[in-house]
């Protein structure tokens, strides 16, 4: 006849006190290990979530930087187009009107381009000053050109010879006597020769690097425009009067 399985109470009575303590310790150790393992798993999950968040943040930062760069490029292009539009309008007004006001406005807009050229939006190229010998002999130079020549080391006496010859060409009609006319008439036997020598000497001075001024403007869309020399010289003089600025 089969024996009945021992009751739980019988098993408990059969277990000694030290064995109960061992079982209790093992149970709590198992319980603690379970909690520790659960905490470890949760820690791994938190780390994975934090890692994913960090990656998402970096991706967002890169997207923001790219967008900011695109916006800056668009703003630069807008500023360039605005400057180009203003420049062309002023240039057309100057070529059509050729008066002091249109000249002044064109000089101002060209002078404002230096800051954009430093940012690479506009390229400013230098060219030599063009001084035809005939214009020098006849004294056919603007006040701005005389200022440019004198400020860059051309001896004043040479420029006086140029101006003197220009006055000689505007002497009053025969029979009309003025102090100015008489004075230059007395020098007529050598005035033309001296003027030509002075003109040749001025031309030699004007071949140096310091007589290279900004004449060509190239915009970011690769379109280029050459300034009339009168404007280029006026811009150079205008910027030369600003302290610590290279024209």
Concise summary:
The protein is mainly α and 247 residues long. It has ten helices and three strands; from the N terminus they run H-H-H-H-E-H-H-H-H-H-E-E-H. The chain has a domain of 119 residues.
Provide keyphrases for this structure.
7% strand; rod-shaped; 247 residues; mainly alpha; 3-stranded antiparallel β-sheet
Q: How many helix segments?
A: 10
The SSE string, one letter per element, is HHHHEHHHHHEEH
> What Rg is obtained from the alpha carbons, in whole angstroms?
45 Å
Tell how many strands the DSSP assignment holds. Answer: 3
Segments where pLDDT lies below 50 for 5+ residues?
171-191
Overall 3D form: rod-shaped
Major β-sheet profile: 3 strands, antiparallel
Percentage of residues in strands? 5-15%
- Order of adjacent strands in the largest pleated sheet: 1-2-3
Distance between the termini: 122 Å
- The pLDDT mean sits at 74
Estimated helix fraction: 55-70%
Structural class: mainly alpha
Describe this structure in words.
The protein is mostly helical. The chain has a domain at 122-240. The chain contains ten helices and three strands; from the N terminus they run ααααβαααααββα. A three-stranded antiparallel sheet has the order 1-2-3. β2 and β3 form a beta hairpin. α6 (143-151) crosses α10 (229-240) and α7 (156-168) crosses α9 (188-205). The longest helix is centred in the N-terminal third of the chain and has 81 residues, at 17-97. It is rod-shaped. Residues 171-191 have low confidence and may be disordered.
């Amino acid at each position: 006849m089969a024996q009945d399985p021992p009751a739980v109470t019988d098993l408990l009575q059969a277990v000694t006190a030290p064995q109960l303590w061992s079982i209790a310790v093992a149970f709590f150790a198992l319980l603690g290990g379970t909690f520790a393992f659960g905490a470890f798993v949760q820690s791994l999950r938190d780390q994975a979530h934090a890692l994913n968040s960090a990656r998402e943040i970096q991706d967002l930062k890169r997207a923001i930087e790219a967008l900011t760069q695109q916006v800056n490029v668009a703003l630069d292009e807008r500023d360039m187009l605005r400057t180009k539009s203003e420049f062309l309008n002023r240039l057309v007004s100057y070529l059509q009107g050729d008066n002091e006001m249109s000249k002044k406005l064109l000089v101002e807009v060209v002078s404002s381009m230096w800051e954009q050229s430093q940012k690479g939006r506009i390229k400013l190229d230098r060219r030599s000053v063009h001084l035809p010998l005939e214009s020098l002999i006849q004294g056919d130079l603007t006040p701005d050109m005389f200022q440019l020549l004198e400020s860059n080391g051309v001896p004043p006496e040479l420029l006086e010879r140029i101006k003197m010859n220009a006055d000689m060409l505007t002497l009053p009609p025969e029979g009309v006597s003025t102090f100015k006319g008489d004075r230059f008439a007395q020098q007529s036997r050598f005035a033309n020769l001296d003027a030509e020598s002075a003109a040749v000497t001025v031309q030699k001075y004007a071949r140096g690097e310091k007589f290279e001024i900004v004449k060509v403007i190239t915009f970011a869309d690769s379109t280029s425009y050459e300034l009339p020399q009168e404007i280029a010289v006026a811009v150079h003089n205008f910027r030369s009067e600003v302290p610590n600025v290279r024209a």
